Amino acid sequence: NIYMQRKNVDEIFEKLSEQRPTPRIELEYYNNFTLFVAVVLSAQSTDKGVNKATPALFEIVDNPYKMLLLGEGKLKEYIKSIGLYNSKAKNIINACKIMVDEYNNQLPDNLEDLLKLPGVGRKSANVLLNSLFNESTIAVDTHVFRVSNRLGLCKTKTPDATEFALNKKISDKWKKYAHHWLLLHG
């Protein structure tokens, strides 16, 4: 019955919240734009690897316009230790063009506009909305997908399906940190 399921879900998040009441993203950043860059770079890479590569970059680039001035070639020099750096550099530069032209040199603050940026899928958009704009979104990467299915929180075949299932299943009081807890638990 659904009441028991909700009760069990609440018990899981109660336990996870006791261990880490307010977990936060492990990527290092200084403002909205630098987190955007770090999130794009973190796709299929480790946060640790991204955190090693970005400090020197973020010392000279902290907004989309400055990134365009740096250029794709020089950006690649800073991020070449990160997997798929060629396509990530291209996506970041193209996203910066959009931010400069359409969003007044700012990162958009809603799902629809974030998804228009090259290199940003649902997971990345949800990470940004959660971490920067305090929205209770659930970002589903491979770890959250796997852990959610193993714990029995859902029975899904894709990260997107997992996101939608978790949003239905998890009480609002847990949503702000839910994906962080599931990620760290994994």
Overview of the molecule:
Helices cover 68% and strands 0% of the residues. It is an all-alpha fold and 186 residues long. Helix 9 crosses helix 11 (172-185). The longest helix is centred in the N-terminal third of the chain and has 18 residues, at 2-19. The protein is elongated, with a radius of gyration of 17 Å. The two termini are 27 Å apart. The mean pLDDT is 95.
In short:
By secondary structure, the protein is mostly helical.
How far from one another are the termini? 27 Å
Radius of gyration: 17 Å
- Helical residue percent band: 55-70%
Give me the strand/helix succession. Answer: HHHHHHHHHHH
Number of strands: 0
Annotation field: number of helices: 11
Subunit arrangement of the protein? single chain
Low-confidence stretches: none
Which band does the percent of strand residues land in?
under 5%
Reported for the largest beta sheet, the result is: none
What shape does the CA trace take?
elongated
In terms of structural class, how would the helical and strand content be classed?
mainly alpha
Mean pLDDT: 95
